[in-house]
């Protein structure tokens, strides 16, 4: 990143600078316009960063930058005066430069550079203004690792703990490619990195994934598949009832209902899979077949076959 700046000179500060550093609090001006401030900035570790000044007053004669909140001499990074040029302070690391517009360039920022910064602006007549801002430095986000305490569990008996290992600030969970909607059986840890499902249910079976991020970058984990085993009650022979078994063509309708405790229902007509026509309608659970109106080709034998998915 280019910057218009001059090299900072090391060496003892002139006495007049030392005296200024000690007596800064005695000469602040109360701003009559917008408050002087440093633009708070987010950066990724290793980047070059410029901390810019907002609401700069006119006729500036110099700048002094500090680490932390306040103008303590031991925290002074560097200063620039039109009359004397650049000077390094006790907190200068060799990576900082003050640009001619007063902004501070920090090269190859590290996590230790995170924090509050203070700038003092010098004005004619021994007047000074002070401003503050924050620099947040983040590690590059690594691809997270998602681990499950168990990937094969039994419904209503077992629990599962999914843990997302990451160096990121924020964690978000996905289920089968969609944002995970938490149920009353699900609980997230305080940092959102651990998801507990207790007990598991068959609808929890599928692919889980965590997406992690900070203000600078994001990454996704490899999906982890959860397999939920379950037992079904023995399937009872269904009962098939019709609203009427003798009907008039083009005039009457008929409703056939298959009473069952099974999960799946399939319909047959004269021993073959029933082919639905535009006059036929199944209920949402496939247990009720309505024919409206009936036609002569609908005459015959109807049957329902019920089943449960295979578990163990």
UniProtKB/TrEMBL annotation:
Cellular component GO terms, alphabetical: cell surface; plasma membrane
GO MF assignments: protein tyrosine kinase binding
Glycoprotein found in the keyword field: yes
UniProt entry keywords in alphabetical sequence: Glycoprotein, Immunoglobulin domain, Signal
Domain Ig-like stretches: 140-227, 238-312
Residue runs in coiled coils: none
Protein's UniProt keywords contain Glycoprotein: yes
Endpoints of the signal sequence: 1-34
Pfam families associated with the record: Ig_3, V-set
InterPro entries xrefs: CEA_cell_adhesion, Ig-like_dom, Ig-like_dom_sf, Ig-like_fold, Ig_sub, Ig_sub2, Ig_V-set
Top-rank taxon: Eukaryota
PROSITE patterns cross-referenced by the UniProt entry: IG_LIKE
GO BP term, example: regulation of immune system process
SUPFAM superfamilies: Immunoglobulin
Family recorded in the similarity comment: Belongs to the immunoglobulin superfamily. CEA family.
Identification of the protein by name: Ig-like domain-containing protein
Species of provenance: Myotis myotis
């Amino acid at each position: 990143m280019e910057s218009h700046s001059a090299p900072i000179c090391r060496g003892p500060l002139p006495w007049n600078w030392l005296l200024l550093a000690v007596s800064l609090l005695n000469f602040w001006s109360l701003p009559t316009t917008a408050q002087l401030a440093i633009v708070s900035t987010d950066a990724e570790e290793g980047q070059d960063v410029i901390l810019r000044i907002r609401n700069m007053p006119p006729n500036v004669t110099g700048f002094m930058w500090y680490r932390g909140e306040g103008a303590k001499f031991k925290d002074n990074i560097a200063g620039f005066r039109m009359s004397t040029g650049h000077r390094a302070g006790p907190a200068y690391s060799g990576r900082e430069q003050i640009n001619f517009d007063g902004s501070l360039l920090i090269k190859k920022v590290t996590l230790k550079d995170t924090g509050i910064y203070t700038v003092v602006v010098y004005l004619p007549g021994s007047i000074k203004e002070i401003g503050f801002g924050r620099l947040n430095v983040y590690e590059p986000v690594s691809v997270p690792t998602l681990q499950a305490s168990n990937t094969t569990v039994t419904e209503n008996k077992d629990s599962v703990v999914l843990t997302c290992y990451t160096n990121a600030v924020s964690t978000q969970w996905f289920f089968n490619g969609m944002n995970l909607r938490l149920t009353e059986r699900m609980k997230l840890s305080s940092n959102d990195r651990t998801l507990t499902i207790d007990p598991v249910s068959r609808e929890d079976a599928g692919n889980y994934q965590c997406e992690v991020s900070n203000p600078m970058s994001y990454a996704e984990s490899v999906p982890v598949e959860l397999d939920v085993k379950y037992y079904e009650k023995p399937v009872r022979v269904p009962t098939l009832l019709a609203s009427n078994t003798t009907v008039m063509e083009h005039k009457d309708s008929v409703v056939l209902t298959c009473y069952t405790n099974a999960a799946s229902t399939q319909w047959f007509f004269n021993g073959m899979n029933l082919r639905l026509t535009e006059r036929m309608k199944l209920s949402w659970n496939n247990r009720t077949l309505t024919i409206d109106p009936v036609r002569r080709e609908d005459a015959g034998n109807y049957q329902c076959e019920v089943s449960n998915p295979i578990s163990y």
